[in-house]
Design a protein that fits this description.
38% of the residues lie in helices and 16% in strands. With 154 residues, it is α+β, with helices and mostly antiparallel strands. The chain folds into two domains: 27 residues; 103 residues. Strand 2 and strand 3 form a beta hairpin.
């Protein structure tokens, strides 16, 4: 093929190529936004399930979610440090938060070089948020470690 036998320039091909590139960039940006927004979704969901079980007064299910161990009754000695009785006192109607009737997950924070996520939620429309630590590997829940210095604004 010589220069004189080349195809005639078609601007629609270039236009179509540009549209595909823009669409690809928009999709990549949207996907990046979704990944960023839902990065800690599993940990937030674990806390939401836990607080929903507390709201329904299903303390055994809540303790199962807290420990991430459905067979905790077979080996209660493993959880002697925070046994079911103490858990029930802490999260029952006589606990610090009283009877938990509602909750909303506010946000989740992932400290650098950590094995877990801080999930911040609001309980019963209180002004002070509840911060719980969720381990990434098994999604077990604990109280915020005292060594973690996070200031949470109401």
């Amino acid at each position: 093929m010589t220069l004189f036998e080349a195809k005639e320039y078609d601007p629609s091909v270039e236009k179509r190529r540009r549209m595909y590139a823009i669409a690809g960039l928009v999709l990549a940006a949207f996907f990046a936004f979704l990944v960023y927004h839902f990065w800690d979704w599993r940990e937030e969901h674990a806390v939401s399930k836990f607080l929903t079980a507390i709201e329904h007064k299903d303390y055994e299910r809540a303790y199962t979610i807290w420990n991430a161990d459905p067979n905790w009754k077979q080996h209660p000695q493993k959880y002697a440090g925070y046994n079911f009785g103490t858990f029930e006192l802490d999260w029952g109607p006589t606990g610090e938060y009283g009877e938990i009737r509602s909750h909303t997950i506010r946000t989740a924070l992932t400290p650098k070089n950590s094995s877990g996520v801080v999930v911040i939620s609001m309980i019963n429309d209180r002004k002070v948020p509840l911060a719980l630590w969720v381990e990434k590997k098994d999604r077990s829940i604990t109280f915020l470690p005292p060594t973690l210095n996070i200031r949470i604004e109401p």
